[in-house]
UniProtKB/TrEMBL annotation:
One of its GO terms (molecular function) is CDP-diacylglycerol-inositol 3-phosphatidyltransferase activity. It comes from Myriangium duriaei CBS 260.36. The lineage of its organism: Eukaryota, Fungi, Dikarya, Ascomycota, Pezizomycotina. This is Phosphatidylinositol synthase. The keyword Endoplasmic reticulum does not apply. One of its GO terms (cellular component) is Golgi apparatus. Belongs to the CDP-alcohol phosphatidyltransferase class-I family. Gene3D superfamilies: 1.20.120.1760.
Amino acid sequence: MATRTRSGKTNGSLREVDGQHPTPEVKQTDENIFLFVPNLIGYARVVLAVISLYYMPLHPRRCSFLYSISCLLDALDGAAARKYQQSTRFGAVLDMVTDRCTTTCLLVFLSTAKPRFSIIFQLLISLDFTSHYMHMYATLAMGGSDSSHKQIDAKRSWIMHLYYSNRNVLFVCCALNELFFIGLYLLCFSSPLITPSLLQPVPGSLQPGSPAAPDTTTSPWSAAAMEMARANKMDSSIPWIICAVSTPVMLFKQFVNVLQIVKASKWLAEGDRKERAKLGLPKKSL
């Protein structure tokens, strides 16, 4: 029989704490979580996203390519985690933070490129952060520390259950949502309907920061100036097709975000009522 030591541990495989029944003691492994394959893919996503942000103001093709690769790797890290049995909380948080930050950075650029519609992009950013934060907090607070934000009971919401439990649905929704904003970003450089300055007005009427305005601080033979000349000749057909195909999915994604807020709020309120009932609140005044 194992005996208890002063530290509360035992010299056997059992541990007794505060007079409770002995429980099996789980030894920590020496694995380096930060070097797991899916986490390495996550770091690559971050690097690609940062580089795409660098090219975002002047190099739409290069930016879109790098940004798209970063988004597509989101599916690869999940597959790697399942294949190598390396699913971790750190990896899940890294994945979520990367998704939120990259989308936010793209929406910030769109809000600066189209100031008239900046409030829409700001609301989309707020909706995205609010829904995911409340959903994650409600899952941890009500479901326990071992629960996952992707484990949704169908009785609570069949739409969210389908969204999180079906990998194909989750991938299509996330991919086409990002694709919509990439298409909108490309239209800022190619469509006169979105950016009227692409109609090549007289030089004196160009506004600073406009996609059509040349970079006067660099040589006309610089890479930036040459890319701008190419950008003004971009065909807007493909970006329009991208936006048209992905718009329904993008709207559904925003609906899911709203639904997450509603369900998380109700779940937290349910927990608050149980906690208040346990504490005997409200107490009757004498």
